[in-house]
């Protein structure tokens, strides 16, 4: 591939976009290279310059959406409580909402949520290790619970067409993390 980098990147992106439009319509096992290339306007040979198969397209998309440690918002500890920067996580989700809404939805890839959690856990563990003496196994379970809840509620928010304003969603998530569901449900209306 001794082509111009801009043209190469555009061709790759066109193939990704064609795949993504098909992935939004049907399950990955039903998508063919022929359909992707027909939709993108290229031949099969061009597809194989960039990807091994349709699963490789999905894997490359997912990999590009997993934040690196440098991209994650800073985790701070305030008053010995975990200060989860929910608004920054929500911004990360919003930046990638085209993909996250599908990948974390009912027809998405269940492995993607695990990849997202595993990318986030080390930063939170590091922040907690500096201020808390907690059993590492217990901490892992706590983080699994919190991150699953965060991913779940943000995904649900998108499926419900952002029925709550973002500020209200963040407030609700903070309240649930700080006070729990039982306290929230027992509040007088």
From TrEMBL:
Keywords: DNA-binding. SUPFAM superfamilies: Homeodomain-like (SSF46689). PROSITE patterns: HTH_TETR_2. Coiled coil: none annotated. Residues 9-69 form the HTH tetR-type domain. Residues 32-51 bind DNA. Pfam families: TetR_C_8, TetR_N. GO terms for molecular function: DNA binding. The keyword DNA-binding applies. This is TetR family transcriptional regulator.
